[in-house]
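Handout, section B. The chain below has 74 residues.
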Amino acid sequence: MKNDIHPEYHEITVQMTDGSTFTTKSTWGKEGDVLKLDIDAKSHPAWTGVHRLLDSGGQLAKFNKKFSTFGIKN
């Protein structure tokens, strides 16, 4: 491997959305930094199975209006 071209690999602390933490190695930040997650496996709909449609007159409303004549009920 070439010298002085690789990022520093060090330990950081990752803080989950519920406040729990764990230590891992990363090239992010500096030694001892805390990475606070906005979304993780405990809160993301892909892993929790809780899906919400948050659309107030946007793409979902346009789609329903455009294809309402096809006889598909909402």
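Note. The CA atoms of residues 12 and 22 lie 9 Å apart. Compare this with the example in section A.
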